[in-house]
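Treating backbone geometry as a discrete language has practical consequences that deserve illustration. The sequence in question and its structure tokens are set out directly beneath this paragraph.
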Amino acid sequence: MNAPELKLVVDNTPERAAGVSRFHESARAQVAGAATYIDDIPEVRGTLHGAPVCSPVAHGVLRGIDASAALAVPGVRGFVSAADIPGDRILAAFGHDEPVFADDTVQFLGQVGGLILADDAMTARRAARLVRWDIDPLPPVLTVQEAHERGSYVLPPVHVVRGDAEAALARAPHRLAGEFEVGGQEHFYLEGQIAYVLPLEQQQWWIYSSTQHPGEVQHWVAHALGLSSHAVTVECRRMGGGFGGKETQAGHLAVWAAVAAHKLHCPVKLRLDRDDDFMITGKRHPFAYRYQVGFDDTGRLCGLTVDMLANCGFSADLSGPVADRAVFHIDNAYYLEDVAIHSYRCKTNQQSHTAFRGFGGPQGVIAIERIMGDIARHLGRDPLDVRLANLYGIDERNVTHYQMTVEDNILEPLMTTLAGDARYRERHAQIAEWNASSPVIKRGIALTPVKFGISFTATLFNQAGALVHVYTDGSVQVNHGGTEMGQGLNTKVAAIVADELGVPFERVCCTASNTGKVPNASATAASSGTDLNGRAAQYAARQIRQNLAAFVAGLDGCGAGAVRFEGGRVISPHGTRPWEEVVGAAYGNRIQLWSDGFYRTPKIHYDKVTMLGRPFYYFAYGAACTEVAIDTLTGEYRVLRVDILHDVGRSINPAIDIGQIEGGFIQGMGWLTTEQLVWNEHGRLLTHAPSTYKIPATGDVPAHFHVTLWPEANREDNVHGSKAVGEPPFMLAISVYEALRDAVAQAGGRPEAMNAPATAEEVLRTCG
């Protein structure tokens, strides 16, 4: 695998901490097995372990649950269900439509009706299987098509229209229509869902939760227990992966464990095993599409209508904003002049689907990229030329269908630079020659772009707070509202604070996310973790620096603006002092050495009813060129080569950013190729373990995998000129899907019939 050369700083700290590739702050501890996850926390004496009791049917009227056989098992200490909830039996989610435990009705196969509590986890799990349900079955709704026909929605449909799409279609020189489906995706984090609840004195609670949103866990638990939020403290030092699956659904486990701890008056740990995690928790939303597109002889769009049917599962969860972002990203990189988008949020008897990296953006982007590929094949043109013909412009054709002006457009130079560096035109011709002489193995190539909006679409979440403490020995502690799930957030925030104070990176330590330190923090999601929390921490550190600068200026009789902080030194026109000496002297003179910081994203606004405005602060861009080979006799295929040019602005940590790009691409490739979720006619998820669900492995990584960073800084005033990197690279993997469709077309097959994931079976089917 080819990668850019990176100088990794180990011992020698440069003058600046940001902009340098350095180890993840927990890397050594993680490699040594010394990094603490929730299941590593020593258990308090008397801790009980929970196991979920899951519904055996997908839909029905719940008459009762009989746990008597389970309670007779040695070591079992209790059973909790909806009747044991002291507060609201409905979770405190925005939709207020999801019960804590199944109550009156059962809405999906695997829905939790209660917990068995035992002295150890295995006893609890064995006993949970003995619980008997009394259910009058009802017919389940298992497909979006059936839900749509019945008008079964978790939220009302949304329609966004610009111009007159029908009239534009009628006068277009060419027209195409199509239908296809894109499957969901299991998060498959290394650390499964887990919560550990500790009762404290006077109806106070301490909760360790593997969550991307500690504030929401706090709110949900307090709501279920009938308490005020100040009685609940939630802490998360790190997660073993999140990908959106722990944005809301980590709250379920915390609430279930808290209800059990409240009833039994003891600490409770609840850790789902992999099978239960699959069966209980939501996935990426599967989508179905219907479209009509009109275009001219060059492939430029004239008009477009798209129906997007999102499979939301049985409750709303985050389906509203997920489906909204799919609407926002249906354009991807392309100007849509006359367009009508109809978004249906379908209610089915499946797990309540939830956030997943990209948060609906990938489901929007893949639709337009597929349409671009179909147009190119219909016209017999190079798909890259069709894509270039439809790009947003600089001074015109630069307003999105939701009325946001694309002000930072680098699409054309980025794509053409990648095409040149990857020798796309030359290889496109070589592949055509290969396919002409190869009867069985066919190759395909595709170059696809990404334009991804950065900010929460729920505007209120675009805020963050942080605390920075400088201790008398000169060491620095940072606490912010973000959570670390392996993405390097704490490493980047520490570098930002180190530079603001002019101290070595090693002098800064980020501590666990804690609702008792930074309240009301937004979820670490929407790729905004560093943008929000890094800026808040920078502002807090800046206040301390200003306090110290004023103190030194008073000592030296100069202006505070003349005092500099660099390389662990404080420099004024009259001399240089070590950082530690200035800190000690400032403390002796009662100068404040800690501060808070707060940041809210500027410029963003939009009308949630009309879906018009500026929902995003800026866009992150990228492009990927992928080559594949397929075996037309078996459907087996290989990804041969990937070249990526991606825009992260001015990188705070190039090594971490490149790692995020590589990982996001491979995860996106899994979504579109191997990660197939299959439910049977009874609503049972059949692919619920590593034996039946295939995520990409090291053998799936192409031999040539080259990532280059676009050299331009963010044009908006973002922290250090950086751009978000968590989600945008995921959609670069659409180039794999389009390359597979190109190879199928080269084989004389039917690429327009290909659904995703494009498994070997799907490739073989469309090869005909």
The CA atoms of residues 330 and 367 lie 7 Å apart. Residues 529-556 form the longest helix (28 residues). The chain is about 30% helix and 25% strand.
